Recover the amino acids of this structure.
């Protein structure tokens, strides 16, 4: 196996429920490989301890390489896919075969190449009106995790961030940032033609046993620095609302972390 060449640094105290561990990798491929290996390790641990592994995937282009690595024989054959339940933290209001579908990207990069039962793949029905899709997805979560008041506790939630600091489909200035009871909401991406979205809320995200945030793009170095190094409101930088009760890890390429390094946070 390739040596882990990451550098680790604790996030400055932000007064949140948990302090993030920031891991910086020399290349985008190394950061993606670390995410893939973490997925595999956490899957084995969860199945051994609880009989299944529940994971929520992120979308966009950033995690594609990580998913492709998970589909390689080296990692895929080590994962008990029949015990894996895959969800999505958010998706766009599009059909499952649409080029902008987060489900489609994960299916093409990963799910089509592993032996996971169709019943274990829990997609957001983006082809439906967003309000209806959100209602049905929350019902799906309750059917898998139990219908009581307790929040679903995912073994792992993958996230990314946008250039505006959003995560999942929790956007700056939106009331969804302060939702305390609903598990899933419909949302609007006002930066992309008012595109409808469906998204987990922060209570679901922060109930996870582990949250990993993968950021590879050098163009996001400024927003990474703002989220991890400055004090600011969740309304302005939604990713600052990530504060899981479990592990909180950021996987960064050196390009995405360059502002952190320049600030001397090694």
């Amino acid at each position: 196996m390739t040596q882990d060449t990451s550098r680790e640094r604790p996030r400055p105290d932000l007064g949140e429920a948990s302090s993030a561990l920031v891991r910086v990798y020399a290349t985008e491929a190394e950061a993606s490989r670390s995410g893939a290996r973490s997925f595999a390790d956490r899957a084995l641990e969860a199945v051994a301890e609880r009989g299944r592994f529940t994971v929520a995937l992120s979308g966009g282009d950033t995690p594609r390489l990580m998913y492709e690595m998970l589909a390689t024989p080296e990692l895929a054959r080590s994962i008990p896919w029949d015990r894996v339940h895959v969800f999505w933290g958010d998706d766009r209001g599009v059909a499952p075969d649409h080029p902008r579908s987060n489900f489609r990207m994960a299916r093409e990069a990963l799910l089509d190449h592993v032996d996971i039962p169709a019943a274990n793949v829990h997609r957001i029905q983006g082809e439906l009106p967003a309000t209806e899709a959100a209602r049905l997805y929350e019902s799906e979560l309750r059917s898998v995790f139990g219908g009581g008041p307790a929040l679903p506790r995912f073994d792992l939630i993958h996230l990314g961030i946008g250039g505006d600091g959003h995560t999942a489909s929790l956007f700056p200035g939106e009331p969804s940032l302060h939702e305390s009871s609903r598990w899933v909401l419909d949302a609007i991406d006002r930066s992309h033609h008012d595109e409808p979205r469906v998204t987990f809320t922060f209570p679901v995200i922060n109930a996870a046993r582990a949250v990993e945030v993968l950021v590879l793009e050098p163009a996001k170095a400024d927003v990474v620095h703002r989220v991890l190094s400055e004090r600011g409101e969740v309304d302005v930088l939604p990713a600052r609302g990530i504060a899981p009760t479990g592990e909180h890890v950021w996987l960064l390429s050196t390009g995405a972390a360059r502002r952190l390094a320049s600030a001397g946070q090694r």
Remarks:
- The helical segments are 28-50, 64-70, 73-76, 102-109, 130-145, 202-206, 221-229, 258-262.
